[in-house]
Write a structure and sequence with these properties.
By secondary structure, this protein is of the alpha/beta class. Helix content is 40%, strand content 17%. The strands form three sheets. Strands 3-2-1-4-5-6-7 form a seven-stranded parallel beta sheet, sandwiched between helices. Strands 10-9-8-11-12-13 form a six-stranded parallel beta sheet, with helices on both faces.
Length: 446
């Protein structure tokens, strides 16, 4: 696509995932000035978030940090810090002054702050939400569980804020068609929605052959490896991994099987406690590994695992499954039937899916795949073939260009803010057991 002038783009991916930065690199190659922003303090699987040899001069990668340690699993503090992050990243965005601002994986409080500081004062700026998850659905369930007395009110506040953000967007990129009916029910204009399914970088994660230094480093030589890689948070079900470890440990035919969990998140603490409680020597827990080693690590596995709880429904699609496909290994997935990951694995013929919470089914399919290496290898070949057919970055970049080049580019000119961001006006308090916290307001409003 021939450009009349270079346009300035911010791709703000809070999570720092691999395929978002791959898109930024491709857009920079095409002549755009691209600034890729991400939250530096969150522990999550990361892509190549640094300049690489051959990167164009038009690409910059900008980490954004908080002044204090991020309290990911302290509900109130987390929301406050996400709002603070939103204000910090908004200042960075406004300093860059992009023509197009794309936001992905951004928590509701942070995105609200960004909208109020980067869109309302600059209405000519194209404000795109790359909708990876309907966050308020999960937040509502969590707050009702954690805050029995006022959880519904808090959940409703997040729900209203997410709707406002979506209504304010100039365009919404949905990762699944399943989001569209819900947005219609929220009276969001679905005429401004496009569907672009997630992908993984097939040139960065690929089948790895030959000796593995990683195996030797971790004492896994001679082992058959079953592996889970990625975040283990509120939307996942680590109890399935515990059930699998216990069943493998009890099966003499699986004495050489190591269940390796390369993860961070609240679920890892649960696994660590159960490993000690049951003496699960076959359960190996590791922190996140370098992205550059994922091809080697994934390729060591006989089977790759993904576990998504029933609460996630259709609104959370684990991107780890797409990385697994690139490695060409079979997948055992526990996820809701209606989740896009289930449909993708089935469509590709890349693995087996079971319903959330089905411990017996999960274990039986796992042991069956270990007993049938020929079948497992076929599923792995199908996975890689699907990735090669589907994850073409040139085609995907074309699609994103069409989204923001549908209208003629506005002339670049200094912008004068139309109105300043709003300031908080009140506070509320939330009780946690015997502890009561006074909470300054979070910008969940307009």
């Amino acid at each position: 696509m021939e450009l009349t002038r270079t346009r300035k783009i911010v791709v703000h991916d809070y999570a720092g995932h691999p395929f978002q930065v791959q898109l930024s690199r491709k857009l920079a190659e095409r002549g755009y000035e691209v600034h890729h922003l991400y939250f530096a303090a969150d522990a999550t699987p990361r892509g190549a978030l640094r300049r690489l040899p051959g990167d164009p001069d038009t690409l910059s990668i900008v980490p954004v940090s908080l002044a204090t340690a991020f309290q990911k699993y302290a509900l109130v503090k987390r929301v406050l810090q996400e709002a603070e992050y939103g204000r910090l990243v908004a200042a960075t965005i406004n300093e860059i002054a992009p023509d197009v601002l794309i936001n992905a994986n951004v928590p509701i409080a942070a995105l609200t702050a960004i909208r109020r500081r980067c869109k309302i004062p600059f209405p000519d700026r194209s404000f795109v939400i790359w909708l990876q998850d309907i966050l308020s659905v999960g937040v509502g369930k969590l707050t009702r569980e954690k805050l029995p007395l006022i959880g519904s009110l808090v959940g409703d506040a997040f729900h209203r804020a997410e709707k406002r953000n979506l209504n304010a967007a100039d365009h919404i990129v949905c990762i699944t068609q399943d989001f569209i009916p819900l947005l219609q029910g929220w009276r969001v204009d679905t005429g401004k929605c496009s569907v672009v399914e997630n992908w993984a970088a097939i040139d960065e994660i690929r089948p790895f052959a030959g000796p593995s230094p990683w195996r030797k480093e971790h004492g896994l030589e001679g082992k058959r490896i079953v592996l889970y890689g990625g975040t283990l948070g509120f939307k996942h079900d680590p109890s399935l991994l515990i059930a699998a470890a216990r069943a493998l440990a009890a099966d003499p035919a699986c004495a050489d099987v190591a269940l390796v969990v390369v993860a961070e998140g609240i679920g890892v603490d649960m696994l660590r406690a159960e490993k000690e409680r049951h003496g699960l020597a076959n359960l190996h827990l590791m922190p996140f590994q370098r992205y550059e080693r994922l091809s080697e690590i994934f390729s060591q596995a006989e089977i790759l695992l993904a576990v998504l709880s029933d609460n996630a429904g259709i609104f959370s699609v684990p991107s780890k499954v797409l990385g697994y496909m690139c490695a060409g290994r079979p997948i055992l997935l526990s996820a809701p039937e209606e989740n896009l990951a289930t449909a993708t694995v089935r469509r590709a013929g890349a693995g087996i899916g079971v319903r959330p919470g089905d411990h017996d089914g999960f274990v039986s399919h796992l042991t069956a795949l270990l007993e049938e290496p020929g079948r497992a290898a076929e599923l792995g070949r199908n996975a890689r073939a699907y990735a090669e057919r589907t994850f073409d970055i040139e085609t995907i970049a074309d699609r994103f260009e069409q989204i923001w080049l549908a209208e003629p580019a506005a002339e670049t000119a200094p912008r004068t803010p139309r109105r300043a961001g709003f300031e908080p006006r009140s506070s509320f308090a939330i009780s946690f057991g015997n502890r009561r916290e006074s909470v300054p307001p979070v910008d969940l409003g307009r």
